[in-house]
Amino acid sequence: MTLKPGSIPWLAAHELRVLLREMQRDKARVVQWVMLAVFMVALLACGVGLGFLIRETGLPPISPMVVTIVDLAVLVMFSIMVASTLARGAQVLYLRDDLDLLFSSPLPARKILAVRFGGIAFSVTVFWLFIAFGLVVPIAILGDPRLLAVLPVLLSLGLLSSAAGLLLTTLLFHLIGPRRTRVLAQVLSALIGASVFLAFQLPNILKGVDPSYSRMGWIRPFITGEAHLDLPPHADLLARAMLGEPLPLLIVVGVCVGVFLLVTQGLGRRFARDVASAVGSDAGRRKAGRTGGFAAGAFAATLRKELRLLLRDIALFSQVLLRVFYMLPLAFIFVRNASEGHSLLLPGGAAALALMAGQLSSSFTWITVSAEDAPDLLVASPTPMSVVTRAKLWAGLIPTLALVFLPILAVGLWSPWTGLVAAAGAFASAWASGMLNIWYQRPARRADFRRRGNVHWLLVIPILIVGGLIAGATFLAADQNLWAVVPAVLAAVALLALKRSDRQILDRLRSPD
Q: Are 469 and 492 a contacting pair, CB within 8 Å?
C-alpha cells in the first residue's frame, strides 16, 4: 500500500525505517533480541501461572491497600517515563539534526511534531508494554479478561509523560537557553532514574542503618486491617481503569490523549522556533578567555584534547552519574557497619571500589579511545601509536581516579592498610579496563556513541572477569590473606593472553571492519 506523501502515516513509516536502520547497524542487536525472547518466555510463564491462580481465587477487591500499590507503581513508571522523555527531547533538539530541514519543508509543523512526539511516547512506553503484554495477556485469557485494559492505560500514561517531559524541555529552553537545556535535561534524566532506584533501596538502607528495622513492620497493620488508609477522592481512578471499568478508563485515556494533543498542537510554532535557535548553538560565539600556550609534546596535547572532549560529553557524564548513584545504598550500609567494627566490611568496601573503578574507567576510556572521527589521521601521524594510546588511557584514568579518591580516603581513615590496598586495587582495575579498551578499540564517529551504549558487548565479559579477579585480590589483600596472589596472577595471565601489540592496533585502525 502506497502512503500519501506528507501524511502522518507516511511520516510515521519514515520514523520506523530510521529506527530499523539504526538497529541493523549494531550487530549486538542479535544477542539483545535473543535475550528479549528469553525474557518474554519467562514473562509468559509467570502470566500463565498467575492466570490459573486468578481463575481459582479471582482478583482481589479494590481496597485502600490495592489502590495505594497501584498508584505508587504508576508514579514510579511515570517518573521513569518523564526522565526518558527528557533525554529523548534533548536528542530530538540536538542529535538528529533533521528537524530544521523538516520545518523548512511545506509540511505543517504540527504533523511533524505529532509523529516525532508520538515516536518519543512509544519509545518510553515500549518497555512497560513489553512487560505488561507478557503478563497481562495470559492472565486475561486464563483468568480475567478485564485486565486487558492495562495496555491502553499504559499507552495513555506514555503520552501524558511525553507531554510533561516535552513541556519541561521547552520551559528549560526558554529559561536557560539551548546549550544548558541539553546539559540539564541529561542530568535531570539521570537524577530522576537514580532517585527511583534509591527509593526502592530505602528499606535496605534503613535496615543497614537500624538493624531492628523490619520491612513488613509498618505494612502489616494495613494488610491485617488494624490501621486504615485515608485516601483522597478519586484515588482509585487508575485501579478501576486498569480493571476495565468503562467510565474510569474513558476518563484516563481521554485526559492523557487530550493533554498530549494539546501540547503537540500548541507547541508547533514555538518548538519550530526553538529548533531553529538550537541549530548551530554548539558552534556559536563563545566568550573570549585566556589563550594558553601549546602543550609540550604529543602526549600532553592529546591528553588535553581528550579531557576537553570528555568534559563536553554530557551524555557520558549522566551515565557515569547514574553508576555513582547506584552505589549509594552500598555506601550507607558500608559506613554503618564499618563504624561498628565489622571485620569483613572494610575489605568488602575495598573490593567494591576496585570493581567500581574498573567500570567507570571502561566508560571513560571507551569514549577516549574508540570515539575517533578520523582514525586514518592517527595512523598517518608521525607520533608513535604508543604515545597516542597512553595519552588516551590517562584521559580516561584521571576522571576515574578523581571520582574514587574520596571513597578511598574514607576507607583509609578507618584502616590505613585497607585504604592503601583499595587505592592499588582501584588503579589496577581502572588500568586493566583501559588497556582492554585500547587493545580492542572499535573506531567510530563520536556522535554514534551517544546513540548506543558505552562499551561494546564483546568487551563486557573480559572486563568483568578481569575486574572481578582484581576485586577478589583486593578483598583478600585487605584481609591480609596470602591467597590474594592467586586472583592477582590470574588477572595478569588473562591480560597477557588478551594483549595486542601496537602493530595489531594500527592494523585495526586501518581496517575497522
A: no
C-alpha cell at 34: 535473543
Contact of 440 with 497, CB cutoff 8 Å: no
Question: CA triplet 142, 67, 149: central angle to 5 degrees?
Answer: 40
CB 83 within 8 A of CB 193: yes
The dihedral over CA atoms of 14, 16, 190, 136, expressed in degrees to the nearest 10, equals 150
How many residues belong to the chain? 513
Contacts 24+ apart (CB under 8 A), 458-462: 458/28, 459/362, 459/366, 462/436, 462/494, 462/498
The counts of H helices and E strands in the chain are 23, 0
Helices (H), 95-216: 99-103, 109-142, 150-176, 178-200, 202-209
Rounded CA-CA distance 108/501 in Å is 56
Yes or no: say if 396 and 434 are a contact pair by the CB < 8 Å rule. Answer: yes
CA distance 409 to 188: 29
Which three cell numbers, joined as nine digits, stand for 270?
A: 514555538
The C-alpha atoms of residue 386 and residue 378 are separated, in whole angstroms, by 11
- 3-state DSSP: the chain helix, strand, coil percent, rounded to 5? 80, 0, 20
Please report the sign of the dihedral spanned by the C-alpha atoms of residue 381, residue 387, residue 391, residue 396: positive
Of 336, 482, 496, 365, the closest CA to residue 431 belongs to: 365
The closest of 432, 452, 434, 436 to 444, measured between CA atoms, is: 452
pLDDT at residue 452 in the model: 47
- Cα separation of the two ends of the chain: 37
pLDDT tens string 203-239? 655 555 555 555 555 566 655 555 566 778 888 899 8
| SS3 assignment, position 96 | coil
Residue with cell 584481609: 479
SS3 444: strand
C-alpha cell at 117: 512526539
Ordered alpha helix ranges (H), 4-63: 8-25, 29-57
Give the residue extent of every domain in the chain: 8-225+232-279, 300-510
Angstrom CA distances, 473 to 17, 207, 425, 429, stand at 49, 29, 8, 11
Residue among 366, 389, 377, 367 at smallest CA distance from 510: 377
Cell numbers for 391: 595519552
Cell numbers found for residue 171: 520551559
Grid cell in block for residue 49: 501461572
At residue 283, the pLDDT reads: 47
Rounded to whole angstroms, how far apart are CA atoms 404 and 251? 50
pLDDT of res. 473: 92
Specify whether the CB–CB gap between 397 and 434 falls below 8 A: yes
For residue 367, give the amino acid letter. Answer: I
Closest CA to 169 of 263, 66, 243, 290: 263
Give φ, ψ of 168 to 5 degrees: -65, -40
**Spatial separation of the C-alpha atoms in residues 92 and 117, rounded to whole Å:** 9
Cell of 134: 507478557
The pLDDT of residue 152 = 92
- Residue pair 80/196 in contact (Cβ under 8 Å)? The answer is yes
